[in-house]
């Protein structure tokens, strides 16, 4: 038969194993994790970041996209704010409908903005 102290340790560890996930879930979202942006297209800061992303992409790729709207987005706090956005934009030189683009933009603490990625979203039918 195992000593009584082994039973106490087992019960304690069992309680910790159950309590830790419950407490972590009740504290809200993970710090530093991606958080959805509610009503992203109504958020002036998010729209301004999205417009800057389109402008920077146009400069880098010699394109003529025109910002239409922010479809949705997520943000992450990392020495500033990193945005992961779906942006609707259209080619100013074409008569086609707008397309969606996935952009990742870092708004740094020094107020500078860095475009990390900008790609056309591939749609599957």
UniProtKB/TrEMBL annotation:
Signal peptide bounds: 1-24
Superkingdom of the source species: Eukaryota
InterPro entries tied to this protein: Cystatin_dom (IPR000010), Cystatin_sf (IPR046350), Prot_inh_cystat_CS (IPR018073)
PROSITE patterns xref list: CYSTATIN
Domain Cystatin: 29-121
PANTHER family the UniProt entry points to: CYSTEINE PROTEINASE INHIBITOR 5
Protein name: Cystatin domain-containing protein
Source organism (scientific name): Perilla frutescens var. hirtella
